[in-house]
Amino acid sequence: MNAVEVSELTVRFDSFTAVDRITFAVGVGEIFGFLGANGAGKTTTIRVLTGLLSPTEGRVRVAGRSFADGARTIKSRVGYMSQRFTLYDDLTVSENLAFTSGLRKIPPAVSAERIQRLLRFVGFNHSPSALVRDLPGGLKQDVSLVAALLHDPDIVFLDEPTAGVSPAARSKFWALIRGLAREGKTIFVTTHHMDEAEECGRIALMRAGRIIALDSPAELKAQSFPDPLLEIEWTAGAPAGWRESLLERGAASVVPYGLHHHVMVNNRAAWDRFVGEHTGRLTVRTIAPSLEDVFIRLVEGADR
Amino acid sequence: MSGEARRFILGRALSIARKEVRHLSRDRVTLAMALGVPVGLVILFGYVLDYDVKRVGLLVIDRDQTRVSRSLVDVFAAADYFSPLALPPGATPLGRLEEGRAKAVLFIEPGFARATAKAQPARAQIVIDGSDNQTTSVIASYLSGLQNAASRSLVPDTGPPQARLRTRFLFNPELNSRWFVVTGLFVVVLGMVSVLLTALTVAREWETGSMERLLSTPVRPLEIIIGKLAPYMALCLGAVGLTYGAARLWFGIPFNGSHGTFLLACVLFLTCTLAQGLLISVVTRQQQLAMQFSNLTGLLPATLLSGFVFPIESMPVFFRYLTVLLPARWFVVACRGIFLKGAGIADLALPLGALAVLGVGLVALAVKKFKTDVEP
User: B218 to chain A nearest CA, in Å?
Assistant: First the structure.
């Protein structure tokens, strides 16, 4: 059985369609990534899957439960970490966690043992009696994760868990996510960061409420870039109108990347002629496409 | 709901209550507001809202200048309600009224003494500045009392009076308006503060985002409402205690009823106002808006429609019926009954029953309106 099954899910707010007939499934133990710009519908989808928002249409099954069983039965089976900062600033770490245990009905003895174990797991090295407002951002995220894991859920939803934390804290947080997946938990994570998306078993790309691609990162790259991807740099200044002429002569896409451009070629002969015309002014390297390339290509494809 | 779930409902409410107490214990400003503002306002308004009109400037124009006419003036002066003034040379009575130097003028016509001696109707005229409605009606009511006193002192030997109307005010024999005002102030002050306290709590959690984590657990709206209500109830009862102390010690307001009944009335009234605040908070989800709403729905009806300032009996029919829905109206009745009349539970069955019904209704409405959907 899948951990999450979504079929034809639609969420509308008045006339605005935030999520538009999406269908997908997440297997048990998977790290499933949700990628997309702000407003693409990632958070809305997660809120439905955590029982925080009722779907307008479509069927949702999370951990074997649906909305027909009541949103509360879903809530008791999943862990959720919001992209907003949701701890109480004026309470201590242990008070915040005790509050969550109380709402989750975790017996005190079990709760005390778990809090200790989870704080150790996330590497929390502060005093648990420190006020949350006095903690650095990364540590607050760690405590939020502990709060989401207190009831030992099989599925954990993380909505942009690393937004606004330092790169070091980010990579540490992803080590935790991998650790949870090794324990057999299903991880459902949204992110802006392409390097984080690479860590996922499969990723779904959302745009304007729809899923426009869903596969493993390697498979997405292979599908989006059947032809080699080249990185070019104009070493002696770019001639005017080169992009347009290149696109006319057989490049599928020309995308600026800092000082370079990524070019996807679909007419090899025309490309070779182009390179020949600009010998000495142009360096060309064959590169492996990153997820960012995939993302841009898919979004452009969807716009076209 | 299964039996197990029913048993556990208090557990979650308790967790929320404990958390609220921790918030409060670190929030000095709110604590000070909740406990200090009611006491401060009762003391402040207890002085300001004094309806008693005393030592009204009375311009005396005695054209008779006899012993009898002077003793009429003495009657007015003795009551302490009026202080007689003489007309300075060159001034006109109307001018003195216009300038506000005097609130009323007493004209005693020549031949006043002669008329009383012959047992003919003796005439004196009183002109009152009618521009201040409040004062005018009080002066007019004093006058009717003084008329009796005057006719008795001026015509002492007319034999035993055949029929004399005597008015005695029960429960507040001196008609001390402060007694009346302070007992009513309980309502305004408690109502205002308590509605505001809870109106902010749920809205604050929506704004900071903590509501999202709260709702991601299987908590029920009823558990949140009870968990938020209980600690603020305790806080507001603390404010009641302080306000009660101020009323008794500072203003010497009598307390003739039972403290148990008073506590019951307070708990019922606070259930209404705290639930009203929660309802506002649950619906608005924004602190700014919740604050405006609670001032509008907490303060205004409590001052204007509760019978605290304007008697309900003299309101238009629509408003008279509207006040039935106001907890403040019933609490005013209960408070005055308990403080001044020593009314017991049986005497106050109607107001206490109404408060109980309104309280349960408001709590139920707050629970029902509590949308657990987290929208963007």
Answer: 5
Please answer yes or no on whether B12 and A102 come within 8 Å at the CB atom. yes
| pLDDT beneath 50: ranges in chain A | none
Domains of chain B by residue range: 3-49+176-369, 56-154
The verdict on a CB contact (< 8 Å) between A82 and B14 is: no
User: Is A226-288 assigned to CATH 3.30.70.330?
Assistant: yes
Residue A76 has its nearest CB partner, among B15, B215, B218, at B218
**In A, what residues contact B, Cβ < 8 A?**
13, 18, 43-44, 47, 50-54, 71-73, 75-76, 80, 82, 84-91, 95, 98-100, 102-105, 144, 147-148
Between CA A240 and CA B33 the distance in angstroms is 70
Per-residue pLDDT averaged across B262-269, rounded? 96
* Fold equal for A4-216 and A226-288: no
Domain regions of chain A by residue span: 4-216, 226-288
Fold of B56-154: abc type-2 transporter like fold (3.40.1710)
Q: B243 to chain A nearest CA, in Å?
A: 29
| pLDDT, tens digit, 9 for 90 and up, residues B301-330 | 778 888 877 788 888 888 888 889 999 999
What homologous superfamily does CATH list for A4-216? P-loop containing nucleotide triphosphate hydrolases (3.40.50.300)
Query: What pLDDT, on a 0 to 100 scale, did the predictor assign at position B172?
Result: 58
Distance from CA of B44 to the nearest CA of A (A): 34
For residue A88, list chain B residues with Cβ-Cβ distance below 8 A.
Answer: 19, 23, 210
